[in-house]
Amino acid sequence: MATMDAPAPGPLPRTRNRPLLNRRLAEFGTTIFAEMSALATATGSINLGQGFPDTDGPEEIREAAVRALRDGRGNQYPPGPGVPELRTAVAGHQSRFHGLTVDPDTEVLITAGATEAIAAALLALVEPGDEVIALEPYYDSYAACIAMAGGRRVPVTLRPRDGAYHLDLDELRDAVTDRTRLILLNTPHNPTGTVLTRQELAAVAELAVERDLLVVTDEVYEHLVFEGEHLPIAGFPGMRERTLTIGSAGKTFAFTGWKVGWATGTPELVAAVRSAKQFLTYVSAGPFQYAVAEALRLPTEYFDGLRDELRAKRDLLSAGLADAGFTVYRPAGTYFVTTDIRPLGESDGFAFCRALPERCGVVAIPNAVFYDHREQGAPFVRFAFSKRTDVVEEAIRRLSTLRK
């Protein structure tokens, strides 16, 4: 049979003089994570770009998923809000680690990862024309979800100073207008590794109460804090009734492919988000929900060990990047290190990251993709250290050639 070469991809066709892609999403192409991960595969490079571990989490939790599959638990549609065992475990987790009282029947919603929780929250709570404040640089799905909801994103920029990134509370206050609907927080913060302090969170809470704002807070890195402490803003005065807290199993238990997340808040907030979520995935990850319920009950030693292991990798990679010539902003949390490439004679993070695999066989992410103000992020590059120690060491060896 004769074969034909596939045509080269071209621009999307138009119908009735309109592009096929909804104009709200026109600014969003393929994510940088897909691009850089494909480049890592094509070049055989070490992928320190996309934030996922290269080993599975606890064996007993993987076996719990297998057991659920074999026992027929979750193989059919689970309940829309999530299986009761997991909702109870999430409520127990919030009480155990944060002192927050959550009703598992009315105040917990299980989602297809934190990404769906964010999307469902914004679709539910934001109407066209509403303004949403987000800390810049921000996880890229924030901008797309705000756009899909018809909202207008208003970035407040975290700025590097004295080896870390800082929130300007005056700038945050000035960003609030009569059209502001909610503040989208992320602490510990991806990509900068900032952990908002008690004083900063208290100021955000005071502002939210004063201006009657909702807060959606992405806390998926809550157990990956190396300096300072993680404090859920829902626990601050006046915040319980206006805060939706988002968590995830992927970062804490190293099973990112399971896509199990959750949202907690008042019954009214959770019901609103569930109204949007039911028309997205409806339900997902049935057997994995039972396994994550067991994971959330692991002893404290597991969570302490995870933090200590990642802190050691943070210190290892940070030192290696500094030796290679980067300016390093050592993170207080998450598993990402942000660097400044200007000491290497570079200033364009996109060009640097696209060339890095050929130069030394390592993939990173340009921070500019996380900014509305691209020039603010242009010279910054993010590396992930959620890999085996020997992989991090090999990446450091390869990056050391940049100074030669």
Description:
This protein has 404 residues and is an alpha/beta fold. The chain has helices spanning 32-43, 59-70, 84-98, 113-125, 140-148, 169-175, 198-210, 250-253, 267-277, 286-295, 300-323, 349-360, 374-377, 389-399; strands at residues 14-15, 18-19, 46-47, 108-111, 131-136, 152-157, 159-161, 164-166, 180-186, 214-218, 243-248, 261-264, 327-329, 336-340, 362-363, 365-366, 380-384. The chain has a seven-stranded mixed beta sheet, with helices on both faces. A four-stranded antiparallel beta sheet has the order 13-14-17-16.
Quote the average pLDDT: 94
Q: How many β-strand runs?
A: 17
* Largest sheet report: 7 strands, mixed
Distance between the termini: 53 Å
> Helicity level, as a percent range?
25-40%
Strand content: 15-25%
Poorly predicted ranges: 1-7
Number of helices: 14
Q: What order do the strands of the largest sheet run in, or round the barrel if closed?
A: 4-12-11-10-9-5-6
Q: Sum up the overall morphology in one term.
A: globular
Rg = 21 Å
What is the SS-derived class? alpha/beta
Which keywords apply here?
404 residues; alpha/beta; seven-stranded mixed sheet; four-stranded antiparallel sheet; 17 strands; 39% helix; 17% strand
